[in-house]
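We store chain and fold; example below:
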Amino acid sequence: MKGKSANYVVFDIGSNKVAAIATNINKTGESTIIAQVLQYSGGFKASTVVNLEAAENSIIAAIYSLEKECNKSINEVTISLSSGFKSYYINHTLKLGSQPINKQDIKKLIQKALADFSLKDQEAIHYFPIKFTLDKDKVVDNPNGLYARELSCQIHVITANSLMLKNLTNCFARCHIEVGDIVLSIYADGLASLSDEEKETGSIIINMGSHISSFGVFFEGKVLYVGSVPIGSHHITSDIAKCLSISMHTAEKLKILYGDVRPELFNKDESIRIGDFEPENSYNVNLTIPVSKLSEIIRPRVEEILVLLKKEYDNIGMDHLIAKRIVLTGGGSGLQGMKNLVAEIFHKQVRIVKLENVPTFAENVNNVAIYSTAIGMIKSKALKYKKNSFKSGEQEELGWAKKIFLWFKENV
């Protein structure tokens, strides 16, 4: 946009794509998108670096494209994380004097709680104050300006695997790019996809990604829990490829064009000629399969993913708090019949995310949904500039990413 330059760059790195956005965020939290880039990525699998050289090439290509769009060098980015994370709850209490509670008291309480929190091979990447309590029994939304003898806080801490973070940071450092921060993908998905009412009354956001399916629980404007299972839409494609002895590329096409989780709906005469998709495959040149057969391959894997997610969700024991709502996003949500199947397994109302076009995109982009995580990452940053931070779940910068980057800069 004329007169504005990008001051915040986000990279949503998936197993197959990089969605990057450069934006300008002002001091009041208003953001203007300057440029965006979408391209194929290699070397990553669910935020894990599996091939360093290929991952570096993906980063360099995306950075080069974004710099051309912005007409500006990029030295620092915020990246997404879709796997290797866990939720924890911690509590801490601070003795107070005769003065009213101020922001420094609240900050000191949270810092002490985080300083006492330590887990081997885990690094805190997000924290959200969930509940403030005055003198052990008075729960308040925001204690600032109130009197008490002691202030307690319950904090939701999200951690990630330390070695995974080092590998990601190292990969960017080798490209001379600093990782300023990391945002959990499912948290960003919630910020981008949930309405204010859904965040307030309670909802579950589910993302069926390529190699991992994850969920986040939102209530009263806060993130209460996040979880995941290591199965996604890639495994559905793999099942199709194995069962029909076809390539992954063809299996993905069939899934997109004919994917459905309701085999009982199809007439046995409805069929797919595999040779139309793989004319070079002499084994399958005359092979024809019923559409119902494809659905019979897809359904068990989708059920497995949803049942595993439901099991992990049930373990946290929060269902009595949450409204009967699920919001479904990610590649797997595009399968026909998904809405009803999710509703059947979770016993909740379900809607599938359909994001509107973003007016400030540098150019017209029809498929805004593929940028949803990146848009949520921008919203996460914008929240830090806005008031009522404890209600919205704002967090202090943890600063670990810069420390790791500086170490790599000096030692690699």
Q: What stands out?
A: Confidence is low (pLDDT under 50) at residues 362-366, 388-394. The longest helix spans residues 291-315. The radius of gyration is 23 Å. The chain is about 35% helix and 30% strand.
